[in-house]
Amino acid sequence: MIKHIVIAAAAALSLSACAPYMNLGSSELDNARKAVADAKAAGAEKCAPKLQAEAVASLYWAAHEVTERGVHPDENAELIATAIAKANAARAKAIKGCTPEIIKLEGVYFDNDSAKLRPASVATLDKAVATLNRRATIKVEVAAHTDSSGSDAYNLSLSERRAASVRDYLVAHGIDAARLTSKGYGETQPIASNATKEGRAKNRRVELRVMN
């Protein structure tokens, strides 16, 4: 994330000096502008920030070059093509779906058929608190999952209560509630087979999904 911010900031700084000499409204840039706008609408700024920043940088540089008609026509055509290609790649990545960073919480335990945290969970949850304090800019979703034992509706409800329980623990230990959401996924996202005891144990899990 920091690398993406640095890239975007560097692009913005390098282009700011040229801002008075840009012509973003030029018809030559119609396709590039549309590609960048379509990528943004698809969520590229969140899902593919590096590609989107590169697309915008190429578009802005092309907008500068069109003010110098006849000076660098080949370069300008290349910049426009780059902006379109980067934006299309960013859009495709966004449409495919963001894959959030997952912070695994190994060792979160609840009483049977309950959202009550067991004392054995404290060490893991305190590590999560330390991670969130260290990474103070991230917002996370507390995601809870169950195995396939029981009905779909019951498992969904149980997972929602367990996710909320972990969120409440984090808030109680100093994490800003505005940084946290909670969601239960029930049995819908298994990571192992529910046919075995070991697989079911793996599927009963809580994780933090970084949302920014």
From TrEMBL:
Domain OmpA-like residues, every copy: 98-212
Signal peptide, first to last residue: 1-19
Keyword Signal: yes
Transmembrane regions: none
Domain of life assignment: Bacteria
Any Gene Ontology CC annotation: cell outer membrane
Keywords: Cell outer membrane, Membrane, Signal
InterPro entries: Bact_OuterMem_StrucFunc, OMP_bac, OmpA-like, OmpA-like_sf
Signal in keyword set: yes
Location(s) in or outside the cell: Cell outer membrane
Pfam entry (one): OmpA
The name this protein goes by in its record: Outer membrane protein
